[in-house]
Amino acid sequence: MSSAMFFSLLLNIGLLVLIAALLTKIPIVRSMLLYDKHSAGCGIMLALIFGSISIISTYTGVRAQGAIVNTRVIGVLAAGLLGGPYVGMGAALIGGIHRYLFDIGGFTAAACAVSTLVEGIAGSIFSSRFKAGKIGSTGVFFLTVFVEFLQMVIILLISRPFSAAVQLVKLISLPMMTMNALGMLVFLGTFNMVFLEEDSQFAERMRLALGIVEQSLPHLRKGLHSTQDIQAVAEIIFQSTSCSAILITDSEKILGMKKNSELTDMQENSVLPPILASTHDRKPTVFHYAGKGDPLYSVLKNHVIVAAPIIEMNQVTGSLTMVLKKHWQQSQSDLNLASELARLFSTQFELSELEYQKKLRQKAELKALQSQVNPHFLYNSLNTISYVCRENPDRARELLLTLSSYYRQTLEHNSYMHALKTELQHITSYLELEKARFEEKLHIEIKTDEKVNCFIPAFILQPLVENAIRYGFDKNGNRYVSICACMEGAFIKISVSDRGPGIPEAIIHQLYHGEHYGGVGLENVHKRLKSIYGQEHGLHIQSSDSGSDISFTIPASSESKYDDEEYAVTREKDVLMERRGIYL
């Protein structure tokens, strides 16, 4: 009889595992198992499902000495562990009441009904610990053994005559404890496949999406403004997935399309309006079927279309559409990939747009600097040249050419970054004009290490030099200005010093704390440096009554990448937008 019990319990466990496997394929059950927080309706449904499993276990049990040897504990205990207290107690009530009504007046009817409720309580008590991962396979095994032991105790306490209860417990305790404990592990392992499969699909989907984005990054820097780059992105997605076609659109037309030979008859004019219309609600749309009069009919006969909106700055600016071959079981991961990619592309386009706006702001700052060239310098230079004209016409002619060269460099230089050598040439033109004005009272010294070869923001030195000449005079009216560029470890230090009365401490304090002190030169340079190189790379000022030294450091790796590559991308984007009728 004992071997028959083991075999019967083994068959029952196999049946429960089959039921569990089928349940995991039902989307609503998967959803309820994957998320702890569910509605009352979902809780009732889970209680009914696990209660039904308990009922099935009662029907498939084998009779022995007036009792039913079964696997009912698996459904009830699993309900509490997986679904929580309400689901566990609901399933226990369903299974317990059914067990009592199934064999009213039977030898163990009342005891088994009570034990079923106890099993539900035990599952509910240990639910939070189980979901938190604090109870592993060993813990589940011994928990099942324990509740089966309690069932044997309840049978001894309630079932009468007592001698018959003792004989029954001797017969069924070992098979039910061992087989139900093992069955519980297999049953929960089947449900655990839901979580493992979901994690695996999510990881694979993210790996694929991130791989596509990584390959597409060089083409996404221009947003949706370059059809050539968008076409390249469409081809990357097509090659990386099993899609039959990939379409990337803006709000008006298809920018990039890649399709296989099956969809040669798919016309842009027919599929575009429904796709664009579907993205207005800002949610991914799945097209499964269409009537014969529908423009998507020819495509949807054998395919599924998934359209996901591309959103930039809270505005729908385009869509990413994937055309998938129809299968008898459509993979949810394939359907979700389009929305994942669209979100990643939207983020990248927003970053690209923010970077573009930053470039525009920097260019605007440069234009502002160019337009803010001190008009007094121009007046003073012209007055100086007019005096020189009387005594030395040739020198006046040289100064006029210098002034012309200086303003040409100032007003026509469009690069936000340029070589330190270029900046010093510009400063030299400025100093030559100032030298003509102050003559022997202006002393200039420029020192640069031979190893120093970097790119710096345009017009970053002139405000510092101009400030030193304007305020850095000693008691005798002499102006000593020193410009130095040297290596300091992994950084390049550039400084402008003078021998004047120094900068007032109040101005230095206001500059460091972001307070406007009335001037714009030092403040502008300080903010530009921090914006480009970081907060720690602003101006460093040392001042005393014997002079001031204004310096800043930049990374020695500041090469021409920004000037040659970044600026080129920005300029190309400007041209693309101008061609599309957008003038900034």
Structure characterization notes:
GO terms for molecular function: ATP binding; phosphorelay sensor kinase activity. This protein is of the alpha+beta class. It has three domains: 2-199, Orthogonal Bundle (Arp2/3 complex 21 kDa subunit ARPC3), CATH 1.10.1760.20; 221-348, GAF domain (Beta-Lactamase, 2-Layer Sandwich); 372-569, Heat Shock Protein 90. 61% of the residues lie in helices and 15% in strands. It contains 20 helices and 14 strands. The strands form four sheets. The protein has a five-stranded antiparallel β-sheet with strand order 4-3-7-6-5, with helices on both faces. A five-stranded mixed β-sheet has the order 9-11-12-14-13.
Strand content: 5-15%
| Helical percentage | 55-70%
Computed over alpha carbons, the radius of gyration is 40 Å
Number of helices: 20
Question: What is the level 1 CATH name of the largest domain?
Answer: Mainly Alpha
CATH architecture of the largest domain: Orthogonal Bundle
Low-confidence stretches: 560-573, 575-584
Termini gap: 90 Å
Number of domains: 3
Average residue-wise pLDDT: 81
Annotated CATH topology of the largest domain: Arp2/3 complex 21 kDa subunit ARPC3
| Main sheet attributes: strand count, strand direction, barrel closure | 5 strands, antiparallel
In spatial order, strands of the major sheet run: 4-3-7-6-5
The general outline is elongated
How many β strands by DSSP? 14
Structural class designation: alpha+beta
Protein name: histidine kinase
GO molecular function: ATP binding; phosphorelay sensor kinase activity
EC number: 2.7.13.3
InterPro entries: Bact_2-comp_sensor_kinase, GAF-like_dom_sf, HATPase_C_sf, HATPase_dom, His_kinase_dom, Sig_transdc_His_kin_internal, Sig_transdc_His_kinase_LytS_TM
